[in-house]
Amino acid sequence: MPVLEISRKVAHSHPKSPKKGRINVPKPEILAIQKAYVVGNSIRKIARETGRDKRTVSKIVKLPEFAASVEQIRQKVISQLLDKAFASVEYALEEELDGKAGWWLLERLGVIPSARK
């Protein structure tokens, strides 16, 4: 009976990692990965769903131009929220009769002692 040789090569189920510093991913896929990251998906989940290595996905979401645009959007959103928060407090101080918003604001600013202390 002939002896069968068994190959020692093992097929890896995970994708190969990229060469250092190089990202060889088509632009539409880069944009899809970045979009998935912006909406809150984790790097691990994106890697699993796209079949890309976690290090590749991490490099894509850490690209300087992407990070800069995300920071710009974040600053714009924070600015808009602050404007609305100030308008809300101003309305509460001027129009509301109970004064809870004013009391809370003065307490947080340290103007009056906190009731929690």
Structure description:
This protein is mainly alpha-helical and 117 residues long. It has 2 domains: 24-62, no CATH class; 75-117, no CATH class. It has helices at 27-38, 43-50, 54-61, 64-95, 100-108. Helix 2 crosses helix 3 (54-61).
> How is the biggest beta sheet arranged?
none
N-to-C terminal Cα separation, in Å? 86 Å
**Strand count:** 0
**What overall form do the CA principal axes indicate?**
elongated
Q: Which band does the percent of strand residues land in? A: under 5%
Helix content: 55-70%
Chain-averaged pLDDT: 79
> Radius of gyration in whole Å, from Cα?
26 Å
Helix/strand order = HHHHH
> How many helical stretches?
5
Number of domains: 2
Low-confidence parts: none
Structural class by helix and strand composition:
mainly alpha
Q: Which features does this protein show?
A:
117 residues; mainly alpha; 2 domains; 59% helix; elongated
Q: Short description, anyone?
A:
By secondary structure, the chain is an all-alpha fold.
Topology, please?
Layout: H1 27-38, H2 43-50, H3 54-61, H4 64-95, H5 100-108
